[in-house]
Amino acid sequence: MSYRDVASKQVLIWACTSVGARMPVAMAPLALVFLVRERPGGYALGAALAAAFVVGEMIGAPLIGLRLRPDRARPQLAAALTAGAAGFVGLGALPGAHPVVLAAFAFLAGGPPAAVAGGLRAMLTALVPARAVTQALSAESMLTSGVWAVSPAAVTGLALGVAPRVPLLLAVALMLTSVVGLWLLPAGWAAHDEPRTAGGRKGPSLLGLLAVAWPVYVTGAAGLTLLGLAELVLPALLEQRGIGVGWSGPILAGLAVGAGLGAFLYGVRSWPGRLRTRSAVLIGGMSVCVTAAALTPNTAGIAAALAVGGMLQSGALVTRNLSLRETLPADALAAGYSVMYAAASAGYAAAGSLAGALLQVAAPSTAVLAGVALTLVLTGVGWWGEVRLGGGAGRGSGRGSVRGADPVAPGHLQVPGLEGAVGPEGLPGPEGTPGPEGTAIRGRSDAEGCL
Prior knowledge:
The protein is globular and about 50 Å long. The protein has two domains: 1-131 and 151-190; 193-451, Up-down Bundle (Growth Hormone, Chain: A), CATH 1.20.1250. It has helices spanning 9-36, 42-65, 73-93, 99-110, 116-127, 133-161, 166-182, 206-212, 214-240, 248-268, 275-295, 299-327, 333-361, 364-388. By secondary structure, it is mainly alpha-helical. Helix 1 packs antiparallel against helix 7 (166-182) and helix 6 runs antiparallel to helix 10 (248-268). The longest helix is centred in the N-terminal third of the chain and has 29 residues, at 133-161. The chain is 67% helix and 0% strand. Mean pLDDT is 79; it is low at 191-201 and 391-451. It contains 14 helices and no strands.
């Protein structure tokens, strides 16, 4: 297991393309606030536009992701990015337009590009050797953490130092650059027209396959809900502790750096235990860290707790994507990643709503503790779901589980009603139980890494 296997010209092009596609998404909420903040009721309008952007993501990710064709994904991804760029053009060119018009542009800017992250992740795993999938997805998580760390500073500097519309116009340029980058990458990734079972019979529909993975989505959303709540309540929490709210930026930057470090460490070595167990342990550790941040009275303690929480959160995200890739066949992965993206967006939106409601009736520290309790409940539900459904998504040796020798139906969960499910090696286990794990098939070792 080595990051050297990820280093290639194609992966470098992919990384540049990914930055161009993701940085506008990271910039958008804050950029929308800066765009309209000088209008009457500007901050409220900015929050509403950011909400329209997130709603677009929640709808666009599954709606478009389900329609991605692995064999010709490139033009579909390019079209989605172009549509998003058009939304950003409208926002940057017409900052004084009616709020409904701006909301429509924000929805367009957020919707179609939301499916691109899943498609790019599926493409990345096709660009690297099978033994390096964990490292590739961990590297993707590091890249994403870097984008989210840089974006707030870039938006603030450009909006205040140049003009409020400039961050949105930069988003247009970045998205169009990523469209160009797509044409330097493969047209798609290996897949099959229809999922089939090991016996050659038609398997469940795409929606059926995605529905099987519901515990993974629940647990993935739980982790982001917790950290999202901590981020959104942080300024109020600092005020409660008598700490200047200006520390919010450095503390959140430290959280992003911690997330990047956590993703790196996850890909450096093998980790023991089933994937579902790793995920539960990591999210449990996050809960401890966020609880410590809520109860700690000083700046250094809050910063350290959230930085460690960010490390664990990125590991949990890697594990959830490993579970998803282990659960779904190749031709359903992009759709699965897109649904995961939508679930994470829904979790973050729920965190915002929960924070707003709780801060009206409780202290910020109490609001954070309520979020911890909710996260633990969701994590328990997700873990129970994976256990009940038979372990396909939760199984993983220290070096990760493998995608099976049958490339059409690898690693399906053993679910009543979905006949013909197979074990991680693509072969039915005795009396319908999953086959053995941990054995490399055609060079495919490690389960996968990293949102």
